[in-house]
Amino acid sequence: xxxLEIRDFSLPDLEGVIEVLTASFSEEAAFxxxxxxxxxxxxxxxxxxxxxxxxxxxxxxxxxxxxxxxxVGTTMIESRRHFAYLEAVAVHPAHRGQGIARALVSQAIQxxxxxxxxxxxxxxxxxxxxxxxxxxxxxFQPFERILTxxxxxxxxxxxxxxxxxxxxxxxxxxxPRLGKMLENTRDPKAREVYGPPKRPxxxxxALSSLGGGKEESAILLKDNAPLGLYQVWRRKEGPVQLRVExxxxxxxxxxxxVLLAQAVFHGASLGKRLVFQTNADQKExxxxxxxxxxxxxxxxxxxxxxxxxxxxx
Length: 313
Hints:
CATH superfamily of the largest domain: Gcn5-related N-acetyltransferase (GNAT)
Largest sheet: 12 strands, mixed
């Protein structure tokens, strides 16, 4: 391998980035319905957002790893309110085992810490043992396990009636009540890692909307007291994604199945392919999904690196 360079993405890197991502994430792209033809648009949008990030209240960097004349790897780091999120870690199969992923991740970690953040979060497939070994060697620690289940909406689905005394409150995706509920339904360790949610700025919401798609969110109430929520969304030609969360004190009472039924019903109006993600510890939700015909597609581990715990590259 020639001299390795890690630097910010630029448009001349586009063709090489697409080749790396296609070679690295073909299975994921097929599952999520990602069309490689959309990559140039997304990366050009990234360049526009990069120019506006200070105004939008965003911080992010898309890094490429290059050897002379060739893009061989990628990663992206993005700031949230209390942490940075690491994603798109990819190295072309022909260049793996040479320390490129370590160099990319280390660079992204340094960038996140330079923003004043003290933790970096990522999600890695449970069966991706080389990646897990890398992250553990850098000081990342697992804190939750996420299951992804796949299903179909069927030919026709009738709405499920809510039990007496319960009602749904439709809310927008940026409604602060939704953010508060998402925080309160997290398990203690995840709440500690993620911290309170941050409401995006108007410009950040506008940039996000350029990706297109549809979504619906609702909070389950009893006597105006929130119990849980569901979210349904679809981006472009991908599957319909479902999320169901319950406050800890209302778990194990059958409400998870009630909310999942609502999510499936409303998701069916957006498309046939459904994907449901949930914390593996939420047995009620997992079992409810399996009863509705979902099957487990894969499991992922969420991992966190706290500043001071990482191993220098």
